[in-house]
Amino acid sequence: MFYKKKGITSFIFALAFVLVLILFDQFTKDLAVSFLMNKDDFILIPGVLQFHYLENTGAAFSLLEGQQVLFAIITPILLLFIIYLLFRMPRVKKYTALNYVLLFLIAGAIGNYIDRIINHYVVDFIYFSLIDFPVFNVADCYVTVSVIILFFLVLFYYKDEDFEEIKQNLRIKR
């Protein structure tokens, strides 16, 4: 359990967890480059789901296309904030889900940041043709699902006093 880990053990666990997620994301993108680039789509479920290679120079769903400098600046700032929040989070069981949400957000951001820095684009390859949904990748899944879970946690799970406890922990102690 994440909430039971203290100090260096917690840090090592979080680092290993994020590293595994990033490696899986990068592995799937390497597979997409190897097996999908310059090839016809690979149909998994006809009319529903397919693998389609795409080089995305924007953010989620090709928003802000071509703004690589902006992403190069904003991503590390957001990552530092999320990491700070993660390690200032109270280490009690009720925040376990929030800790995992933050770890998945970190992994998703780093996974796509690696692509942006190395390739100047993000490799996307998962396409839901049934609803003509934008092409995405595993890191996008990490971020999207994390944000959805965060939304539900904030609306239905955590109470005002939980947020006060988090705010108290975020304050810099002198």
UniProtKB/TrEMBL annotation:
GO terms for cellular component: plasma membrane. It catalyses: Release of signal peptides from bacterial membrane prolipoproteins. Hydrolyzes -Xaa-Yaa-Zaa-|-(S,diacylglyceryl)Cys-, in which Xaa is hydrophobic (preferably Leu), and Yaa (Ala or Ser) and Zaa (Gly or Ala) have small, neutral side chains. Its EC number is 3.4.23.36. Keywords: Aspartyl protease, Cell membrane, Hydrolase, Membrane, Protease, Transmembrane, Transmembrane helix. The chain crosses the membrane at residues 7-24, 69-87, 96-114, 134-158. It is an enzyme of class 3 (hydrolase). GO terms for biological process: proteolysis. GO terms for molecular function: aspartic-type endopeptidase activity. Pfam families: Peptidase_A8. It is a multi-pass membrane protein. It is found in: Cell membrane. Belongs to the peptidase A8 family. This protein specifically catalyzes the removal of signal peptides from prolipoproteins. This is Lipoprotein signal peptidase. It comes from Pseudobutyrivibrio ruminis. The lineage of its organism: Bacteria, Bacillati, Bacillota, Clostridia, Lachnospirales. The gene is lspA.
